[in-house]
Design brief:
The complex is a heterodimer of chains A (290) and B (294). By secondary structure, chain A is mainly alpha-helical. Chain A has one domain: MetI-like fold (Orthogonal Bundle). Helix content of chain A is 72%, strand content 3%. In chain A, helix 3 packs antiparallel against helix 9. Helix content of chain B is 77%, strand content 1%. Chain B has 16 helices and one strand. Chain B is globular, with a radius of gyration of 27 Å. The chains are: A mainly alpha (290), B mainly alpha (294). At the A-B interface, strand 1, helix 1, helix 3, helix 4 and helix 5 of A face helix 3, helix 6, strand 1, helix 7 and helix 8 of B. Chain A: It is a multi-pass membrane protein. Chain A: It comes from Loktanella salsilacus.
Chain lengths: 290, 294
């Protein structure tokens, strides 16, 4: 759609601008403020320059949290994307069962995040949870509060449970936009199932899959509530991801300077990924000729 | 007998003989897709079922005997929540700020989305991108500054504070979703309306809003959901008067003897709002999460 140039449109955008500026720019400026100052309490601040950034860049704590974070995001993407595509390919195309699948699959997406944590906290307990009890009965030593590997597996399975449906629903939306003629042509050519997937379905899904991957990466990159409820970041620091570490630092220990420097670097990474996301979105819009 | 009957049937209606045999084959051998979906849906439902199961048991049964369904069926856990103000006020508080947030988000996002979908103006692309970064902003970064900001202007522990804080990610979300729907409405409709003598507000309310009604519904639903599921900010910004249900639940987990039955019942009740409307938005879930771009 070709749009007309109209500078007065700014008036329509103004309310959003004011509101979001109030809830984003002011707090962000507070963070910037803290990141370059030091305090001994009593509201007395003095200039610290870039010391906090220097500190944070050389602290093992942040790099470890970042390492755990990247590993977590990589693992869940490696599981959720193929699984989501696989589920989408097997979903019924129309009728009652299609609606039924859509409804049931959407359910985990709409559960409050702390309840997701609570559900898995209970589900994995050896004494009262179905999963923990079953594993225990099978003779597998499973304890997500003590064993690091078990904690990781629990958090990952929980995330797969929570978010795979999103990838599947997006992939399904991509699949449904493929005209029947493509499949008929493939049938005439006697294409194998794999060839149909590789040369018809995958290219047609590429756009939505890109959105799905970026969304999942982004949301997993700032995951807080679910692992916090289940493991509290433990055992030790084993499941302390970036957000959990940041909240510990800022609200737990009130280390304002380091936490602020940490926040800003965190936010810059998010900005960079947002830019990739935005570029993908606008390219998609153009390709669709909208 | 079949020898004589078969040729007759086949010659009379060749298409019909094929149909039943195919149907029988399908019934006998369920397709691979159904098995995959069955297993996947089972994986999704089991943890939720377990929560529901626990919420219908007494605490002694939960801790005492392991059973796949409640033996001593009880609604007592739900009764506890619905009669104790410290529990049910959590729901009232959550609903209050969520509804406030949805109303504010939609009210400011509608005109903005219209501007983005119809006009180009100075800095529009930068603004659109900036909105997106706020949707993606980690709440952990904003928790402390929000706490200080709302404390300093005397709004700490009020519903409006949480509602405004959630605008951080819900307003951008609403703008993006609504813009996605609005660009699907041909511009000629606007032009025709203006020629017919409609003023902008009259056109927007009488003609445009009904055309994007489904978009507004989807945007409202997602604002509601994202505000409903968020815990970190709502917990940081409240202490007593506006304490959300999610925070009430975490407090119970920390208590010495955990009341598992009540905790499970509270969890089930938080799923209800989503489950109630899920059927109506089932075809829009993907679109909403993808910010109106699928």
């Amino acid at each position: 759609m070709n749009k007309t140039v109209n500078q007065k449109a700014w008036f329509l955008v103004l309310p959003v601008l004011i509101l979001v500026a109030f809830s984003a720019v002011i707090p962000l400026m507070t963070v910037v403020n803290y990141s370059v100052q030091d305090t001994f309490g009593n509201n007395q601040f003095f200039w610290a320059g870039l010391d906090w950034f220097d500190d944070m860049l050389h602290s093992d704590r942040m790099w470890n949290a970042l390492g755990r974070q990247l590993m977590f995001s990589a693992i869940i993407l490696a599981i959720e994307v193929p699984l989501g595509i696989f589920v989408a390919l097997n979903m019924p195309k129309k009728g009652f069962w299609s609606s039924f699948c859509l409804v049931v699959m959407s359910l985990p997406l709409l559960i409050p995040w702390n309840v997701v944590g609570t559900i898995w906290q209970i589900f994995g307990r050896v004494d009262i949870g179905l999963l923990g009890y079953t594993l225990d009965a099978l003779g597998i030593d499973y304890n997500y509060t003590q064993n690091i590997l078990d904690a990781w597996i629990t958090v990952i399975v929980m995330d797969v449970w929570h978010w795979t449906s999103l990838v599947a629903l997006l992939a399904y939306a991509g699949l449904r936009s493929i005209p029947d003629a493509y499949y008929q042509a493939a049938k005439i050519d006697q294409a194998s199932r794999w060839a149909v997937f590789r040369y018809i379905e995958l290219p047609k899904m590429a756009g939505v899959l890109m959105i799905a991957i970026l969304l999942r990466f982004m949301d997993s990159f700032m995951i807080y509530t679910e692992p916090f409820v289940v493991t509290g970041g433990g055992p030790g620091n084993a499941t302390t991801f970036l957000s959990i570490d940041l909240v510990k630092m800022a609200l737990g220990q009130f280390d304002l300077g380091p936490a602020a420097a940490f926040s800003l670097m965190y936010f810059l990474v998010i900005m960079a990924i947002s830019w990739v996301f935005y570029t993908v979105m606008t390219t998609l819009d153009k390709r669709d000729g909208k | 007998m079949t020898d004589t009957a078969m040729p007759n049937v086949a010659s009379d209606a060749p298409a019909m003989t094929i149909q039943p045999s195919r149907k029988i084959k399908r019934n006998l051998r369920p397709s691979g897709g159904a098995i995959v979906m069955g297993l996947y849906l089972l994986f999704l439902m089991l943890p939720i079922y377990w929560l529901l199961n626990m919420s219908l048991k007494t605490n002694s049964e939960i801790l005492g005997a392991f059973s796949l369904w409640p033996r001593n069926f009880t609604l007592e856990n739900y009764a506890t929540i619905l009669t104790d103000p410290s529990w049910y006020m959590g729901y009232v508080n959550s609903l209050t700020y969520v509804l406030m947030n949805t109303a504010i988000s939609l009210a400011v996002a509608l005109p903005a989305a219209y501007a983005f979908s119809r006009y180009t103006f100075m800095g529009d692309k930068h603004l659109f991108f900036w909105l997106l970064t706020n949707r993606m902003a980690p709440p952990a970064v904003f928790a402390l500054p929000f706490f200080q900001l709302y404390s300093s202007i005397g709004l700490f522990d009020t519903h409006i504070a949480v509602a405004l804080a959630h605008c951080l990610f819900n307003v951008p979300l609403a703008v993006w979703i609504l813009e996605g729907f609005m660009r699907g409405v041909p511009k000629e409709i606007d032009e025709t309306a203006y020629i017919d003598g409609y003023s902008f507000p009259a056109f927007f309310v009488k003609i445009f809003t009904p055309l994007i009604a489904s978009g507004i519904g989807v945007a409202a639903f997602f604002c509601f959901m994202f505000s409903w599921v968020e815990l970190l900010l709502s917990r940081t910004l409240t202490s007593v008067n506006a304490k959300p249900i999610a925070a009430t639940m975490t407090r119970t987990v920390g208590a010495a003897g955990v009341d598992w039955g009540v905790l499970a019942a509270a969890g089930v009740l938080t799923i209800v709002p989503g489950a109630l409307v899920i059927y109506f938005v089932r075809n829009y879930i993907a679109k909403g999460f993808a910010l109106g771009r699928v």
